[in-house]
């Protein structure tokens, strides 16, 4: 589970970085960004909403990964009275 969460988090962060560091002004005119066809008539708020959604997804994956790592130590401990 930890490997899946880590790899999916890195994938989402890479997508966010690729989209952010593109030349947005020239790229948006008549091209696809994350499976949506943008033109100059589209609002910039829709693009910001997509980036915010990807950021939310990255936060969820990071939180799930942290929870798995924290709870991993508890699974390795023997239950109370196991040595009797």
What do these coordinates show?
This protein is mainly alpha-helical and 84 residues long. 67% of the residues lie in helices and 7% in strands. It is built from three helices and two strands, in the order H-H-E-E-H. Strands 1-2 form a two-stranded antiparallel sheet. A hairpin with a 2-residue loop joins strand 1 and strand 2. The longest helix is centred in the C-terminal third of the chain and has 33 residues. The model has no long low-confidence stretch (mean pLDDT 77).
Strand content: 5-15%
Count of extended strands: 2
Q: How are the strands of the biggest sheet laid out side by side?
A: 1-2
Number of distinct helices:
3
The overall average pLDDT, rounded, is 77
SSE arrangement, N to C: HHEEH
Tell me, briefly, the overall form. Answer: rod-shaped
Rg estimate, integer Å: 20 Å
Rounded to the nearest angstrom, the distance between the terminal CA atoms is 32 Å
């Amino acid at each position: 589970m930890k490997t899946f969460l880590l790899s999916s988090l890195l994938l989402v962060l890479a997508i966010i970085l690729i989209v952010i560091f593109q030349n947005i002004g020239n790229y948006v005119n008549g091209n696809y960004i994350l499976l949506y066809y943008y033109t100059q008539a589209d609002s910039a708020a829709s693009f910001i909403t997509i980036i915010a959604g990807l950021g939310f997804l990255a936060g969820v994956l990071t939180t799930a990964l942290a929870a798995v790592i924290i709870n991993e130590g508890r699974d390795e401990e023997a239950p109370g009275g196991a040595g009797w």
